[in-house]
Amino acid sequence: MDVEGSFGQQEAVRLVAVERRGKGDGDNGEGGSARAWHGTPVEVGRALVNYSSGEIMRIKGLQSGGIEKVLGYADSEYVALRENISLSVRASRPVSPGIGVVVEAVVAEVAALEG
After folding, report:
1. Rounded to the nearest 5°, which phi and psi values hold at 82?
2. What is the model's pLDDT at position 31?
3. Which residue in 44, 38, 40 sits closest to 13, CA to CA?
4. Is 109 within a domain?
5. Could you count the other beta carbons within 10 Å of the beta carbon of residue 58?
6. Contact 79, 50 (CB under 8 A)
7. Model-level pTM?
8. How many domains does the chain have?
9. What is the domain-level CATH number for residue 48?
10. Residue 5 lies in a domain
11. The dihedral sign for the CA sequence 96, 102, 3, 47
12. pLDDT above 90 covers what percent of the chain?
């Protein structure tokens, strides 16, 4: 999971699937660290988020119980509630195996955040 851009709490954000970089693909050639993904993002849905982009960057990877310790408050144990996530399927566009795997990982991560 990664966060790109700036947004606030209770804003609608795009959910995109991307191809993950393999090990050893960490340098972007510009002296900075590269994203954990590459290729063209494909929108797979939208979500209404409970935390801002900066807050999500701070709490990603944590269990729900750790949110309050890091942020000082916990409005929700979820970044986005299931009922506030809308996944879209585009049957007219073929999905490459790499992107399908990432979509499954995103869906699994959302489910893990809810569970």
Report:
1. -55, -40
2. 43
3. 44
4. yes
5. 15
6. yes
7. 0.63
8. 1
9. 2.30.130
10. no
11. positive
12. 36
CA nearest 49: which of 16, 9, 5?
A: 9
Give the neighbor-by-neighbor strand order of the sheet with 12-20.
12-20, 37-48, 85-87
> Of all helices (H) and strands (E), which one includes residue 55?
helix 53-59
3-state secondary structure at position 12? strand
Q: Which residues contact 52 (CB under 8 A, 6 or more apart)?
A: 7, 8, 9
Q: What is the DSSP-derived secondary structure letter of residue 83?
A: G
Q: What is the pLDDT of residue 29?
A: 45
| 88 domain-assigned | yes
Structure tokens at 21: 């970089």
User: pLDDT tens-digit profile of 14-56?
Assistant: 998 877 776 655 544 444 445 667 778 888 999 999 999 999 9
Range of the domain at 28: 12-114
Residues contacting residue 80 through CB under 8 Å, at least 6 positions apart: 47, 48, 49, 50, 110
Q: Which helix (H) or strand (E) segment is 8 a member of? A: none
Q: Is the dihedral of CA 39, 41, 44, 47 positive or negative?
A: positive
Nearest to 52 by CA among 67, 32, 33, 40: 67
